[in-house]
Amino acid sequence: MKKALTRQQYLDLYYFMRLNRAVEDTMVKLFRQNKIVGGLYSSLGQEAVSVGTAYALEKKDWLAPMIRNIGALLVKGVPPRDVFMQHMAKYDSPTKGKDGTSHFGDLENLHIVSPISMLGDLIPVMTGVAIAGRYLGQKIVAMTWIGDGGSSTGVFHEGMNFAAVQQAPFVLVLENNQWAYSTPVKRQVPLENLADRAKAYGIPSYVVDGNDVVAVYTTAKEAVDRARNGEGPILIEVKTFRRLGHAQHDPAEYVPKEMRAYWEARDPIALYEKFLSAEKLLDANNKKQIDEKIETLLSAERDFAENSPLPPAEFAAQGVYCTGDDCHKVAPKWERPIAEVTPPKSRVPAVWTVKGFGSGKASGGGSAPIHFGDTEKHEEQSKDTEVPEAVAETIRPPAQPRPVKSKSAKATPKKSAKPAVVSGKSSARKARR
Amino acid sequence: MTTAWKANGSQAELGTQVTFLEAIRQAMYEEMERDPAVVLIGEDIGVYGGAFKTSEGLLERFGWERVIDTPISESAIVGAACGMSYLGLRPIAEMQFIDFIVCAFNQITNFVAKGHYLWNAPAPIVIRGPSGGGVHGGPFHSANPEMYFVHTPGLKVIYPSTPYDAKGLLKAAVRDNNPVLFFEHKFLYRRIKEELPTEDYTVPIGKAVVRREGKHLTIISYAAMMHTSLEAAAELEREGIHAEVIDLRTLLPLDEETILASLRKTNKCLVVHEDTKTGGIAGEIAAILCEGAFGDLDGPLMRVTALDTPVPYAPSLEEYFLPNKEKVLHAARTLAKY
Questions:
Q1: pLDDT over 70 at B334, yes or no
Q2: Same structural domain, A251 and A356
Q3: Which of B1, B83, B117 has the CB atom closest to A126's CB atom?
Q4: Residue ranges per domain, chain B?
Q5: How many CB pairs under 8 A join A and B?
């Protein structure tokens, strides 16, 4: 059997999932020692999502994490000490103690945009990143994550819609972990698959088993490649489960026991270890080496973090405004000729063009001004044969809504024509529009 | 339709007087000519040229990639502008009417404004749009929402009163590394004209200007009320009251120095603004004077403002709601007697 990934890629995914979990385990200890200033949000059981998706990005690409995507930050190159220091409000942390958790970014080197606590806001921001990258000729892809809960915000819709009309090179990972704090997904969204929301924006989507890191990675890689190739934004719904509460304070007693048991039995790291052993990619010796590597690294990173001071009090008053070029030199990195976007080359007639106007077919069979999109005009000779697909879409009776299945709260990914479902051993299939 | 633009992108001949609106357009045109990192984003700004035609001709000149028509999504406009700025672009985002800026309130106050302080991320964007009343636009097309944002550290807030300042300040805003909110009083758009320099110039952000020298009292104002204040000052002069008139131009950061210097000279202060009374900039100025020049005050700080109501639609109601010359004269005469 030809393997889909290289050995190094398989092992990278494993290493980063293990590192993700170990970083968070370390922070639980720090939290219990009262060394973490604010809240601590866990991604236990969701490591395959953060790691598998972010691993599909290139170095030049941009990402913006959510609170449970520390794994994505580690993959992008953030050292664990930064994550520790952020939580501990240390002066050497990326925000120098001004914000906590994964609320930090790096515009210069790692291309990370900081999240804020208000959900959904990153979607238009990353759409802007994607558009700017395209404008500058950088061929980048922008990626961010949103939870099942965050997908109900208004700005989610504004951002996705705008990304879609702009055909922005943007990948949204909809991390469906079944719970928005205490509210189950069924109480938030009346859909079996949140990926169905992509239909509203006319963009491709995938549904993938979020606890199968290879499936997550191969799907994300395909999506990132498609976005980079100009196919526009893509939505990936990853089905997973938030194993702990919203944050450390929350015992999550509202979660049904059988649901938790189901997902605990599908731990992404345990599943992946089984796979790697079966594929002879990992043995006890490799595993021990990785254990030791992570332990050594995190022990040093933790020491560094603990030894960093808290910020001096007066630092609170500094840095509200950029003071100019001495503070930040704001300059785009052009990777296309500037002449293309400056006059006279940029000159265009300020008119709307409508290519396919009148090409639609009315129910009586005559030509009708139904379609307003940029499709080719409906050819006369094909009158009795097939209606162009884009036109047919607009005149076909609407499909019957899919019956909503509600017998089980656990969402086992199922195969379905639209969107593409990716599960099991990583067979990413292309989504159809 | 192709418009015949002059070399500087102006519809007007060089050396002639241009409107406030034309000054805004020239600023955008010239900045886009100067720097390909400057792009426009907003609703109906491209083919249509903007609801007030402030961006007319810019699509033709700069193309689809630099003049981006958007869906009706203010949060997406501001969010996308912010994201674009992270890659070094300098987007100018238009709110079709500034009233709609509150639809993007979260993006502006939580995302854009806090980025530099929290994670060292400057967001050099300008958010501009037509504001203000007096044109019977009703409660959702006449707002003066500047103070929501003056209360937000990390933003700069500009509200000019003349074509010269509008052009120079908008250019300065585009070149600033911080997010700048730029309010354009639509009553002024086509009512005032001014001859502008032919060469490139900017007006510094954060600097007020003394529009009229005087010794008996200081009238502080901005935007459309600036002109009302100047008319009142001319009339006061005939009564022997010499009012100094200060145009704030920038509300955040506020030019405390100019305010205090004038007060130390006149010892009396009247603030005139079209914004509603409670929470308006007059309250902030009162605090600055009490903190910085209490001993110099020879009378109470007085204010002439709009009523604490939404902006009503009927001309009779709106005229009652808005400050006007008579109200300024009445307050100034009262203050002068102290």
A1: yes
A2: no
A3: B83
A4: 17-195, 209-336
A5: 196
Asked whether A159 and B71 are in contact (CB, 8 A), the reply is no
Which residues in chain B are contacts of A138 at CB distance < 8 A?
A: 87
Q: Is the pLDDT of residue A381 over 50?
A: no
State which fold the B17-195 domain adopts: Rossmann fold (3.40.50)
Query: What residue of A is the nearest CA neighbor of B111?
Result: A116
**In chain B, whose CA is at the least distance from the CA of A348?**
B60
Helices B281-293/B256-266 angle, 10° precision: 70
Taking the Cβ of residue A110 and every Cβ of chain B, the question of whether any pair is shorter than 8 Å is answered with: no
Q: Is the pLDDT of residue A432 over 60?
A: no
Q: Assess whether the region B17-195 and the region B209-336 belong to the same CATH fold.
A: yes
What is the domain-level CATH number for residue A191? 3.40.50.970
Summarised one tens digit per residue, pLDDT across range B151-168 is 999 999 999 999 999 999
Residue A372 lies in a domain: yes
A190: in domain? yes
User: Which range, of A359-373, B195-209, B215-229, averages the lowest pLDDT?
Assistant: A359-373
Q: What is the pLDDT of residues A87-142, one digit of tens each?
A: 999 999 999 999 999 999 999 999 999 999 999 999 999 999 999 999 999 999 99
User: What integer pLDDT is reported at residue B252 of this predicted model?
Assistant: 98
pLDDT greater than 90 at residue B57? yes
Please state which of the four CATH numbers 3.40.50.920, 3.20.20.70, 3.40.190.10, 3.30.2310.20 is assigned to the domain occupying B209-336: 3.40.50.920
The residue range of the domain holding A374 is 348-398
Q: In total, how many domains does chain A have? A: 2
Catalytic residue among B141, B185, B227, B273: B141
Instruction: Extract the tokens encoding A283.
Output: 């043995």
Query: Predicted confidence band at A425 (pLDDT cuts at 50, 70, 90)?
Result: very low
Q: Is B141 a catalytic residue?
A: yes
Q: Cα–Cα distance between A419 and A431 in angstroms, integer?
A: 6
Walk across the sheet containing A234-239 and list its strands.
A62-64, A142-147, A170-176, A234-239, A205-209, A420-422
Together in a domain, A104 and A241:
yes
Q: Which residues of B touch A132 (CB under 8 A)?
A: 83-89
DSSP sequence for A85-149: HHHHT-TTSTTTTSS-TT---BTTTT-BPPP-SSTTTHHHHHHHHHHHHHHTT----EEEEEETT
Distance spanning both ends of chain A, measured CA to CA: 31
Check if A337 contacts B (Cβ < 8 Å). no
Mean pLDDT on A257-282: 97
Q: Are strands B209-212 and B243-247 parallel, antiparallel or unpaired?
A: antiparallel
* Backbone region of residue B240 per phi and psi (left: phi > 0; alpha: psi in -120 to 50; beta: other values): left
CB proximity A200 to B under 8 Å: no
The pLDDT tens digits of the residues spanning B307-327 come to 999 999 999 999 999 999 999
The amino acid occupying position A256 is: P
Nearest CA in chain B to A105: B119
A121 vs B89: CB contact, 8 Å cut-off?
Answer: no
Distance CA B232, CA A386 (A): 75
Tell me the average pLDDT across B173-190: 98
In chain B, residues with a C-beta closer than 8 Å to the C-beta of A347 are 60-61, 63
The per-type count for chain B, helices as H runs and strands as E runs, is: 12, 14
Residue A313 lies in a domain: yes
Query: What part of A 112-141 touches B (C-beta under 8 Å)?
Result: 113-114, 116-118, 121, 123-133, 135-136, 138
For residue A2, being part of any structural domain is answered with: no
